[in-house]
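Internal ticket #5521
Category: modeling
Description: The requester needs a full-assembly model to guide mutagenesis choices. All entity lines are attached below as received. Residue total reported by intake: 492.
Assigned to: D.W.
Attached entities:
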Amino acid sequence: MADFLKYNMNNQTAIFNNVPIAIYSCDAQGYITSYNKAAEKLWGVTPVIGKDKWCGSWKIFDLSGESVSLDSCPMARAIKEGRVIEGEEIVVQRPDGSLYNIMPHPIPFFDESGAVAGAINTLIDVTEQRKNEAKQRMLASIVESTDDAIISKTLSGVITSWNKGAEKILKYTEVEMLGKSITLLLPSDKIGEESLIIDKIARGETIDHFETRRITKDGHSIPVSLTISPVKNGYGQIIGASKILRDITVQKLAEQALQQHSESLEILNSKKDEFIGLASHELKTPITSINGYLQIIDQKISSDDHNKVFIHKALLQVKKLSALIADLLDVSKIESGKLPLSFTTFDFSHLLSDVIELLQHSNHSHEIVVNCNATNLIVTADKQRIEQVIINLISNAIKYSPNDIRVFVNVTCSGDQIVFSVQDFGIGIAQKFHKHIFSKFYRAEDVEANISGLGIGLYISSQIISRHSGRLWFDSKPNEGSTFFFEIPVNQ
Ligand code: ADP
């Protein structure tokens, strides 16, 4: 019998020591009389039996963060007041600073005379539970405060949650929708979508930014973007879906407005091109007549007539005007894809010397220094259009180096390409303008006031060169000058 009792005692001690719940006891004076391993672990402290009182905790706080002295802890009050203390959660701090939420449950026991003989306290660690609750509260407040509709449903499509965002977007209240079928929101032509969605969700897949339409309580069909994810239970089984529904009416309207805007811009642009084409065409006829009449007058008046100089000035201006009109006509031809090219085979170096002669003849401010050692530069190209590009680049070099007296033309043949370049030491082009230089009607802002031009010469030149399977590019630094290059294939 004694053996049995001894065995039983040992057994109980083993259970007390090893249960995963912290348990300890105190005597009537509050001295700790026993504690198990779980209690020691929870406190992070090893109390001295018969010396330490009330509780093994290093520090105790109430839930508002106020410090609680050991002699007024729940265990101390249970012994002093002779009653069970329930539901008073405390926060225990270990010597390493870590904090734990603890639910104590001290139960006093009494001697034969009814006086308190001590108490047993169990300490339940509720830290994880509290953390989860805080996380849940945070998630719930996000769900409640978001403007998106967040809805959850079972795999059979029964709505299980409905947030404020859903009320706002879909106009149904939570009470109206809980327990109802999600198909209530589907337009008649989209009923089939639900089974497709559920099939995907049941396979564990997520649906991301699926754009569709849903019907609000007041019967409006609104464009929405849906993101739907599977919801799993604690065993990892898919039991439903959570859906984030975003009203994309505003995003969609903006898209439409943008589309309309760019359509009207396109119309305006083509109207402008049409106008430029028409206007330059209409201007061409009177200018040709003025030019003709001026030439007749020039021939009719004698060479010593002092009016002759005015006729020559007028003829020069008419020539400039005709060049501008010709450029504008070219732009409109390029825009309508009707810039005709007429290819012939010729020697580029001959063309170059003709053009230089012509330019040098009409220009006295600059010397055009040519370096062209290559010979037999046979190309198949539109002679007039290539001449137009050369004239444009050399004229620009002269025009944009008003304080200089020379421009340098260089021609080389590299592989199967002729490389033409013209260098000036003029005003140059700031880096920020580089990317726009070949755009139609573009002029670097800092030249606009001082040097006249329409900003179409380089645009036309780049189109001509690209139609010759060539390339037009430049190097330029402000106040140091520019070099414009083009290359076109040479005949092999
Ligand atoms: P335009 O000279 O009639 O303005 P272009 O299309 O020939 O038109 O040239 C476009 C712009 O490129 C010019 O307005 C000018 O800002 C810049 N540019 C062209 N050539 C030069 C150059 N050689 N030096 C400096 N800037 C130039």
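Resolution: model delivered.
Comment from assignee: Residues 249-300 form the longest helix (52 residues).
Ticket closed.
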